[in-house]
Fold this protein.
Amino acid sequence: MSSDRRWKNAVERLSKRLAAQYGFTLYRPTCLVKIEQDIALTICFDFPPSGMKFHIAAQPLYAPEPELHLTFGRELRWAEFDRMGPWGTEPDRFGPDIAELEALVEAEALPFFQKVSSPRRLIRFLKSARSRDTRYILCPPVIRYTYLAYSYLRVKRYFSASRPLRSLLDELSAYTDPSSQQRYGRAACLLRLIEGRRFLEIDQLLDGYAADLHTQCKL
């Protein structure tokens, strides 16, 4: 068995152990997902040709998306990655490498998830200076405004959602691709509903978005 395959097998065993220990579901053999208050919390070990990547991410299911993604989160690095390369190719290093990955989950992933594991917590995080620090978090403006607006709506702070929705419209106005135009149309619709005080319709829309992504991703 190649060292690459042995490393992948070791990470798959780690993923199963983490899922059992912290209440995640194995979405794929090396991708773990847990849903808390309609927010998907993801730990993902990917294996591109260049090596292994270790991502953590959060995604509110009530903000419409066609699939789960890693757009809002972090890529974690570990000492062995920098010193030896991404595979940990020496067989006697698999144990220590895996232990270090597990330690990163406890030191970095779980504290991050704690900060974003409900709509109210997500709002606080997105409004914090830390969420704008690209050395710490990946959060493009479109994602920031989308998640902030939809989270305000989810906790029924409808008028608080107006400002990030307008910022989202400004951000999307330069884009002509179908996905951006669809985002633009949804944001404009929500603003009209807020202005018309049609709050029940907003609640029903967000319930539908969450249900759709639950079903599509088989969560």
